[in-house]
Design brief:
By secondary structure, this protein is of the alpha+beta class. Helices cover 25% and strands 30% of the residues. The protein has helices spanning 13-28, 38-45, 49-61, 112-118, 163-175, 193-198; strands at 65-68, 72-75, 100-109, 125-135, 138-147, 181-190, 206-216, 219-229, 235-237, 243-245. The strands form three sheets. It has a six-stranded antiparallel beta sheet. α1 (13-28) packs across α3 (49-61) and α2 packs across α3. The longest helix is centred in the first third of the chain and has 16 residues, at 13-28. The chain is elongated, with a radius of gyration of 21 Å. This is GntR family transcriptional regulator.
């Protein structure tokens, strides 16, 4: 990896450094190779570690780098191709697509913003279904689905108090409602500790958060908060309005 003179560059130093590093990744490094540590890189390019860290964060956000627990910063492989539809999910089998795997279901208070979307009292406990999405053997998304008890009134409390069996039961009852539509938002966020562990990311790593409200004729039936790895996924909207993650041999810049 070569060096470059940064002092005379008019654009922000970290942005120019990002460009130089990106070119070096293409020419000098292989997928999965570990980069030198931050101290050595900063010394090589004659920049402060804070500047280097900004450039590395941008490259991570663009999917060029991965920061792996116990390993360091490595060159990322091409983004994984996964299809994610925004059409009404078929929850009849309790999974909602073979890639999503239910892990658990418990009763807990929803976060205040979620409670507001559900129209429930913040002190009210709701069903919280936790699922993980795998593709090609890699975890790419984690989801928390919040379902008020009023949305699944026929759910038997004696079936299973928690676990995957309970999660499937909640999803089956939700399917029976006959959902009428949904709305969603996508925003850049930082991985919470729980999500980071499930997605093999470091806490605070950039993620894409997709929040979806599901409606019936009576109002909001459930709210999903799905966290996608920003370094692995590129979310795109087609003409049909479907949300999907497409294969990207040359990762494009993500808008923040």
């Amino acid at each position: 990896m070569g060096t470059t003179q940064l002092e005379s560059v008019q654009e922000p130093k970290y942005w120019h450094l990002k460009t130089v590093l990106s070119e070096a990744l293409d020419s000098d490094f292989a997928v999965g190779e570990i980069l030198p540590n931050e101290r050595d890189l900063a010394a090589r390019f004659g920049v402060a570690r804070a500047t280097l860290r900004q450039a590395l964060e941008q490259l991570e956000l663009e999917g060029r780098l991965q920061r792996r627990r116990g390993v360091g910063t490595t060159v990322a492989p091409p983004r994984v191709g996964v299809a994610v539809s925004t059409d009404q999910r078929d929850w009849a089998d309790g999974v909602g697509g073979e890639a999503w795997q239910p892990l658990d279901s418990t009763m807990a208070k929803a976060p205040a913003p979620v409670a507001a979307m559900l129209g429930t009292d913040p002190a009210e406990q709701v069903h919280v279904v936790r699922r993980i999405r795998d593709t090609q053997g890699q975890a790419v998304a984690a989801e928390l689905l919040y379902v008020p008890a009023s949305s699944v009134p026929d759910l038997s409390a004696i079936e299973a108090p928690s676990g995957p069996v309970r999660a499937r039961s909640v999803l089956r009852e939700l399917h029976r409602l006959g959902l009428q539509g949904q709305d969603r938002s996508v925003e850049l966020g930082s991985a919470r500790a729980d999500d980071a562990k499930e997605l093999d990311r470091l806490p605070g790593a950039p993620v894409l958060v997709v929040t979806t409200r599901y409606f019936t004729v009576d109002g909001t039936a459930a709210v999903s908060v799905a966290t996608y790895r920003a370094d692995t996924c590129r979310l795109t909207f087609g003409d049909s309005g479907a949300l999907e993650i497409s294969h990207d041999e040359q990762p494009e810049r993500q808008a923040s």
